[in-house]
Amino acid sequence: MQFYLETNRLILREIRETDIDGMFELDSNDKVHQYLGKHPIKNKKEALENILFIGRQYKELGIGRFAVIEKSSGDFVGWSGLKFNIGEKEALNDFQNFVDIGFRLIPKYWGKGYATESSVATLQYGFNTMNYPIIFGAADVENIGSNTVLQKIGLRFINTFYFKQTECNWYELKKEDYGK
Ligand SMILES: CC(C)(COP(=O)(O)OP(=O)(O)OC[C@H]1O[C@@H](n2cnc3c(N)ncnc32)[C@H](O)[C@@H]1OP(=O)(O)O)[C@@H](O)C(=O)NCCC(=O)NCCS
Questions:
Q1: If you take atom 1 of ligand 1, which residue's CA is the nearest one?
Q2: Is residue 97 part of a domain?
Q3: Domain span at residue 117?
Q4: Is residue 149 in a domain?
């Protein structure tokens, strides 16, 4: 399944098996995983498993996180986009079967506004192309970067909840409130 979204500085497209080096650089980094349970991956086999998992989501659910490519360099920057969380295993804050927005970038690309820029395009795709009625977001309360991005793109804080003993913020944006 193919996706193609463009922003000023970025291309968002499907994650491909050829992104394995970038996906390994991303998910083997301790800093990236600081607020994600602290379990960075150890080898490229795990990076490939992650890519194949996302590929199955594209096929079965019609959506999954997008690869973020920097236009000026062609570099793989990380991923950003929507995920359909299905079933008990993916439940969060007592929600099941919901779409959330997320982002995970290689640290050398942090601080350039890329998470915000990619997420603005992602929200537009989610509401206008996929026609989702509501998009959720969640972040560790201590993950200032992630909370800032979610708020900047217009998601509204709803409540805090605990995920594996970590306090997290829960956000939502309804289609009817999008762009207001
Ligand atoms: C969270 C993450 C995606 C942010 O990416 P980014 O491209 O640096 O974010 P942006 O540049 O779009 O930042 C948007 C705003 O957040 C602020 N911000 C970002 N990271 C910050 C941090 N660590 N501390 C304080 N503010 C931060 C920026 O200053 C910016 O604010 P401004 O527009 O008012 O200047 C990135 O740090 C990351 O990949 N982290 C690891 C994975 C992760 O935690 N993902 C989220 C899981 S819920």
A1: 146
A2: yes
A3: 4-135
A4: no
Q: What atom of ligand 1 comes closest to residue 106's alpha carbon?
A: 39
d(CA 90, CA 113): 28
Q: How far is 81 from 15, CA to CA, in rounded Å? A: 11
CB-based contact 4:61 (threshold 8 Å): no
pLDDT band for position 143 (50/70/90)? very high
Count of domains forming the chain:
1
Q: What is the pLDDT of residues 65-119, one digit of tens each?
A: 999 999 999 999 999 999 999 999 999 999 999 999 999 999 999 999 999 999 9
> Best mutation site among 105, 143, 169 for ligand 1, i.e. most ligand atoms within 8 A of its Cβ?
105
The DSSP bridge pattern shows strands 10-14 and 76-85 to be unpaired
